[in-house]
Amino acid sequence: LGDSCSSSGYKRNRAITARRQHLKSVMLQIAATELEKDKSRREAEKQNYLAEHCPPLHIPGSMSEVQELCKQLHAKIDAAEEEKYDMEVKVQKSSKELEDMNQKLFDLRGKFKRVRMSADAMLKALLGSKHKVCMDLRANLKQVKKEDTEKVHAAGGAPQHLKNIMRRSKSAWKCRKKMFETES
Known about the structure:
3 domains; 6 helices
């Protein structure tokens, strides 16, 4: 029983592998024909372009006709050179504008760089190192028991500890405000 299962599994895997190889060869044949079609299409486009833009050259027999042909060719060359110069100027102008825009974008990104800083570090940066300021808001908070908050909420008023914190923060702000005003 074990041999028959393994041999049928082997045959199935082999059939799947053969099917994959057949599909791969068919896909490669299709790709090769598409490449040939593409190559012949490009060659036809090239011939059409050359026929349209480069008519066959008729070499005249007399000297005056040759000189006239040279004048015509020089005029076409001059026109092509002028067009080339205009295009180069446009490209240079566009690239300069692009560089300016990139520089402005870079400058704008630099102006709005996000910096994470604690309140103590911000005050130290503003006031300098001569002032020792500590603004630890968590230290100002006091522990409140759950029962006390429930009593206050049941009474319908604001909790007393919130009133105390607001009073302390107002007085601390007034003190800092005076310190800023004296430095200015």
